[in-house]
User: What shape does this take?
Amino acid sequence: MTTLDLNDPDFVADPYPVYAWLRDVEPVHYSAANDLWLVSRYDDVLAVLRDAPGFSSDLGKAGLDDNPFNPAIRIPRRLARLLDRLPPVRTLLTSDPPHHTQLRRKVAKAFTPRRIAALEPRIREITERLVDDLDDDLVRDVASPLPTIVIAELMGIPADRRDDFKRWSDELVNGLLTGGSRIRMARSALAVSWFFARTVRSRRHRPGGDVISLLVTRDQDGDALTLAELVNFCILLLVAGNETTTNLVSNAMLALFDRPDLWRRLGTDPDLAPAVVEETLRYDGPAQGLLRVTTAEVRIGDVTVPEGARVLPLTGSANRDPRHWADPDAFRLDRPAGDHIAFGSGIHYCIGTALARLETRIVLETLARRHPHLGPAGVPERIQSPVLRGLRTLPVTIRPTVPGTGGLPGRAAQIGGRNSSVR
Ligand code: HEM
Assistant: This one.
């Protein structure tokens, strides 16, 4: 019996050949190394995501006590005892109906397409400024700061707290998803909770035009979010929206560096940008897998999965399934829009899609217009996570490269080096 370890660096570097093997040979695969059931075909992934009663998002303590993607990392005992005494943290992402339904109704008003579209001029202004200062790392200089600045402004957070904001966001995401320090994660969780609790209280007294002020006011049904719900939602926005958007920009740029013709066309025809964004989401999306727990014994395809099992629907694999897509390993701009599941599906469908698409589109348009010769200038560093796909660094040059010295054709497949393997 083969078993796949999601932390195998070869898998993290290039999971796509392994996904193909899984889809063909074991579409529902139990990974003993991770104690996770991997679901890899498009139809099965969709069925799991759309069956909220059968597949709970409430991971309970499973999310805190250990790191499901890296079982070697355990939370220190003293910290675990402290966390045990706290009430369970319920966020939108990790709750089930009916709680999820009520919460989602209350927060959805903050992210309507109209509200987000109105941000376009300001996002363009911030992007132009970041691109003015672009030096030699596209992630550090543009892709990483942009979503943090935008979400901080959206929440009315003063500019002098942005560094804290970024650090909290990074430490939370690293602790949750990439095997980073759980102590730093817990420390950041406490600091950010305290910060947002104070912010929420002050907005109740003096509301402004920001998202937190909007959420502290009662809606037409007289429903208001509790302090804990508000604080958790603010933290979720940091965790769910920053690094994912950064990664969408870097994954798009990797795909474009491999396709210089498309990059040149984008420079003169910005209308291509939305299709590039959509195809990047399908081809190399930032969220490769989502976590669920079975509420009862269930059949997925031909396999029986027990109650209480952790399931990982692999959206990254579903988006390359040849049973659903023609020519799935090709980057094509002529696919039906909105068919990929990079933003999930069902009741937890991403609330930030309009914002993520807008920011990424603006970055691509701006870079292609202002830097037609932008190209890779070294080997990028990949984030070491099987579910969060993106780059920590993307060294670039804005000058034309002499062939054979700077460009790295086919980098998307080369980062991390070796071929993927299934043991
Ligand atoms: C390219 C960028 C992004 C990607 C790929 C992405 C992906 C996802 C996915 C796959 C889910 C579903 C999770 C699940 O079913 O378990 C989700 C949920 C969510 N996303 Fe995003 N996201 C992105 C950007 C954003 C942004 C910019 C925000 C907000 C500012 C955001 C806020 C959320 C929230 C609040 C949820 C939870 C929704 C719920 O549970 O009902 N995301 N996202």
Q: What stands out?
A: Residues 57, 92-93, 104, 151, 236-237, 240-241, 244-245, 248, 285-287, 290, 342-344, 348, 350-352, 355-356 surround protoporphyrin IX containing FE (CB under 6 Å).
